[in-house]
Structures are given as C-alpha cells and as structure tokens.
Design brief:
Largest interface: A-B, 27 and 28 residues
Helix content of chain A: 55-70%
Number of helices of chain A: 10
Structural class of chain A: mainly alpha
Shape of chain A: elongated
Oligomer: homodimer
Strand order of the largest sheet of chain A: 1-3-2
Strand content of chain A: under 5%
Chain lengths: ~230, ~230
DNA sequence: CCTTACGCTCTTGCATGGCACAGGACGATA
DNA sequence: TATCGTCCTGTGCCATGCAAGAGCGTAAGG
C-alpha cells in the first residue's frame, strides 16, 4: 500500500472516514447536493469501497447524506422548512439543558460558563466576531454538558450536525447588533441558572434560540431550499 | 439452512435485516446483552455477512446494539440512569408536541385524538388493559404526528426504539389505578389543546410523562444488570 | 422535426475470501 | 499449587469480483 501518509492506522479506517467526511460536510467543504462517489472516496482515502460504503451508510442515519439506491450518494440539503424544524428541536433541547443545569446547583460547568461570558464580553467590546462565534458555540456546548444527560447530548450533537451550525452561526452574527444582543441574553440565562430558577432559565433560553433563528433566517440570502443548481443547460 | 422462506426479494436485503432485527430487539425476542454473531445472522437470513454487518452498524447508531471492536456485537441494555435520561427526552418532545399541536388549531389529528379518547374511556371501563395500552401508544403517536414536525418525529421514533417502549408500557399500566389516572391526564391535555393553550398543554403533558415514568420505575422489579423475564404473551 | 426505443456506462448492492486482533484454554515451569 | 507464556478459536475488518438497476445519449422510425 502506497498510502503510508498521515492516515492514522490506529482505529478502524471507517471511523477515520466517517470523522473526516462529517467534518467536511459540516464545515461546508463539500457543496450541499453534491454527489459522493464510493469509488472516488475509496481512492482518496487509500482504502477499498467497503469501509467507505459503511461510513456513508452511517452518515445517512445521522442525516448528513442521502443514499439513493443504485443512483448515488448525495450531501443532504436541508430545506428552509427543515431548518425551522431543527431550530424547534434546538430550542427544546437547549431550554431543557438550562433547566436541568439550574436544578443541579453549582457544578464545574457553571464556572466555565462565567469564564466564557467574561471572554465573550471582551470579544464583543473588540467587535471580534470570529472569536465571539467560537465562544457562542462553547457557551452552548457547556450548557449541554452541564445538563449531565448523555441522551440529551447525543440528540443535540446529531441536531447540530444536521444544521451544519458552525457554518450558520456566522451568518446569524453578521446581523448588526446581534452579537451584543446575544451576549446579553446569555448573561440573563446564566443569571437565572445561578438563582436556580430553572423555569425562567428554560423560558429565556428558548426565546434566545428563537431570536437566534430569526437573525439567521434574516441573514440567509435566498430561500432556495431545493435549488438544483443547474447543469449549465446546453 | 432454512432458506426459501418469505424473504422478500423486492427491497434491499439489508433493509429487511435492519427492520427484522429492530423488531426483535424492541419486541424483546432477543435478551438484552446477548451477543449477535454476524455469521449466524448471515446464515439465518440466507445472505452474506456484508449486509448483516451494515445493518448492525446502522442499528448501532440508532442505539439498539453495541459493537465492541474485535470482540462482538451485543444488544444494548439501558441502565436505570439511561432510562431516566430517555424519559427526560420523552417529556421534552411530547410536551413540545402538545404545544405545537395546540398552536396549529383544528387539524385532522384532533378528531382522531377525540375518537381515541372515547375508545380509551371504554377500555378503561372494561378494565381492558391490553386494548388501553394500544390506545395509549396511538394517543402519543397522534400527538407527535399532529405536531407536524418531521425532525421531532424522527427523534421521537429513535427514542422510543431505545426505550423498547412497547415492552415497558405494560409494566407502567400494571400499577393499580394507573390506567384511570393516565386516561384522565390525556383528557386534560386534549382539552387544553382544544383551548389553544399551548403553554398549559405542554406543562400538563410533561407532568403526565413524569407520572408515567414514576409508575414505570415503581413497577420495574430491580435494577439488576439484565433481567431476562419470560414473554408475557397472553 | 419530433418521438420512441435501444444500449452503453456509471452507480450501488451483494458474495466471497483473506487478515489481524481479542479472549480464553491449556500446558510448562518455578 | 500458582503463575506465566503460548496457541487456538471466534470475531470484526477489509479487499476484490460479479450482478443488477438507473440515467442518459444516440440513433432509428414515424
């Protein structure tokens, strides 16, 4: 095998393929709707079609690709309606996480959240959008981790993958004033968590997610849910 | 090699394997923790190991089996903690479904829910637990369908599969008085939905799920590693 | 010129066989 | 007898080959 490059031989190859393909799709390296050929991927990763095939099958159950039998595998393109649906789920789960965290009392995640908000304040003051986007993601991740519920976390991860959220959060924050508003809302949520007011924390967190969704959809250029970007018709 | 059975050659083989294995695990035909051999399953279904392998991998991402590399594949046995976590998710999703349905106004699912409750009242009056269990499942399914959110439904289905809920609901209803109480709670939820009071509908629905969980855990014999209790197919 | 049907190619689906590794049984040695 | 090393078996993992369905270009017929 001529393929003794950076491909880590540790662990199974398909795990590597799954992780890498997932990363690419979420990060947006591959255009939504683009076809994925088993053979091409197999050559690229230096393996046979079998592990690639199994990796794609797993990504399908995660909702990242769509396998049309005997036709091909394609990166899924969430329609506008699906995005709305995913945000409803996001609202649910993050709201619940806030409530659960409030009920748990003072846990290490609380300290990390406070630290996160301090840094976020600075980033907003500097108008450093990129850094703030990172901190937003960390804030939400800490919230989920603090809920201490593995099933909640698992469903959340799958959700975020389908949303390709890391791509979208930048769009959301590009709305003028959104970063400052978002930062304020985070403060309120953490405040309510510290007061152990799970009820209000959940409520405010939900509104926060809704606001985030509105900012995102306002920033999305075109509805284009099923834009079959044409094949340059002859 | 008892081949030549009613194996449908029409659909893809692995789809058949997935569906059948999922059915067995959920229904409880296979003991939790039991090892699944690729080779044995391949022979039983009359196919090669490849589709079986891919089927098991999909079931793994659904949380129904656990693949330990180089060791074997086993049916997952949800711990008591995981059951609690799953019920938290169930509470979330069904509560949200009640809220969403209330917001939608009068849709066909509402009529079906009313019909369902009429039949459920009769079943409770007759003390027909088996029929009531079916109606409970239908009630919750209608609620989810009425929410008109495909992502919500997808996550709900995965949840129910992991819970093997169809097995558990009977345990829950075996608690004395639980059926009557459950039926009453269903009525209240539907009432609130009809009044378009999504807020209260969600709240009551959550309490209903919590009550159901308490009834279930009270009926569970022990938190032992894996109880293989005989099928109560009467 | 338009319609229809053929056939080619590309894709995935499945079968088969070899390989590497984990776990346990067995036996040799102190 | 206890302990350690070795072999054996079972399992998942991967490579390769063949078969079949889907899409599309092209050519024949009206």
């Amino acid at each position: 095998m001529n393929r003794a490059k950076s491909e880590p031989k540790n662990g199974s190859m398909q795990a590597t393929v799954i992780a890498e393909m997932r990363r690419r799709i979420i990060k947006g390296d591959i255009d939504p709707g683009a076809p994925l050929s088993e053979f091409a991927l197999a050559e690229e990763f230096g393996v046979s079609r079998t592990p690639v095939r199994e990796a794609l099958k797993q990504l399908q159950t995660e909702g990242l690709v769509e396998i049309r039998p005997r036709v091909g595998t394609f990166v899924t393109t969430p329609s506008r309606r699906e995005i709305t649906e995913l945000f409803v789920m996001k609202e649910l789960i993050e709201g619940a996480a806030a409530r659960l965290l409030a009920q748990r009392g003072r846990v290490p995640e609380i300290d990390k959240l406070e630290q996160n908000l301090r840094e976020a304040d600075e980033a907003v003051a500097r108008d450093d959008r990129e850094r703030y986007a990172e901190l937003v993601q960390e804030f939400h991740d800490l919230l989920i981790a603090g809920a201490d519920n593995s099933k909640l976390e698992a469903h959340y991860r799958m959700l975020m993958n389908q949303l390709a959220y890391s791509r979208l959060v930048n769009t959301s924050l590009s709305q003028p004033g959104r970063a400052l508003q978002s930062d304020r809302e985070h403060h309120i949520v953490l405040e309510l968590i510290l007061e152990k007011d799970g009820d209000s924390a959940e409520h405010v967190m939900r509104e926060h997610v809704r606001a985030s969704r509105r900012a995102l959809l306002a920033g999305l250029p075109i509805s284009g849910p099923n834009e079959k970007f044409g094949k340059t018709s002859s």
